[in-house]
Write a structure and sequence with these properties.
Elements lengths: L2 H5 L10 H10 L1 E5 L4 E3 L7 E15 L5 E7 L4 E2 L13 E14 H10 L1 H27 L2 H15 L2 E3 L2 E5 L4 H7 L4 H13 L3 E4 L2 E4 L2 H8 L2
Length: 227
């Protein structure tokens, strides 16, 4: 797929005329990455930001003792590391490939030139950062006030909205990260996550087979999430 075709699907570049999309495509650099490869580390100087073309990337924090805390999973046509344009100009987290993929990289200086020439870029950047802020505010709220079943239910509902199939009243989906990473993302441990999956299964809300989850009762799942 051409750079322009990928770029036009991203929120950050929505509503831009073709001529401006072409300008963005010209400064984009394709960066393939392998599973487990680090795209940038926490604290590294931010020389640009990314748009995921294919594959999956996790944004995470690494504790002094080497433990990993997953903050967010990035999916195709989502941008990431835009926030590094502000503040101290360094990446606030580490980005690592969950599976083999490719990203478009936008060098800071070249992109800032586009911002200066076209105010629409600035408005879109504000919108994109607002979405990012709301996402992390919701995550903090869930980690602070919701119990493990509510956190897991919220995650499954979000995943179902993004990528799932339905058949005969059931919703089928695949977890987008390993269960250990999911436990970290939900602010719990693997043992608690396993018990929570089992609890929802015993209550007839879901079925689980490895990374495959079938939602049997969507309304009850929403009730568990508190939404």
């Amino acid at each position: 797929m051409e750079n322009k075709d990928i770029i036009k699907k991203a929120l950050l570049f929505s509503g831009l005329a073709d001529e401006y999309l072409a300008e963005v495509a010209e400064i984009a650099v394709r960066r393939p990455f392998a599973k487990g490869e680090t795209l940038f580390t926490e604290g590294e100087k931010a020389e640009g930001f990314y748009l995921l073309a294919k594959g999956a990337v996790k944004l995470c924090k690494i504790s002094p003792d080497g433990r990993e805390k997953v903050l967010h999973m990035v999916h195709a046509v989502e941008t990431f590391a835009e926030a590094a344009f502000f503040g101290d100009g360094s990446y606030p987290a580490e980005a690592k490939g969950v599976e083999r993929g490719e990203a478009l990289y936008f060098p800071r200086d070249a992109f800032m030139g586009l911002l200066e020439r076209n105010p629409r870029f600035s408005l879109n950047l504000i919108a994109s950062l607002s979405v990012l802020l709301r996402r992390f505010a919701r995550q903090i709220e869930e980690l602070s006030f919701a119990d493990a079943p509510a956190r897991l239910a919220s995650y499954l509902l979000e995943l179902a909205e993004r990528k799932s199939t339905s058949y005969q009243g059931r919703t089928y989906l695949e977890l987008d990260m390993r269960k250990g990473e999911l436990a970290s993302r939900l602010g719990t441990v693997s043992e608690t996550l396993s018990r929570t999956f089992r609890k929802l299964k015993d209550e007839g809300v879901i079925e689980v087979d490895g990374s495959r989850v079938v939602i049997l009762d969507m309304e009850k799942l929403r009730l568990v999430s508190g939404k």
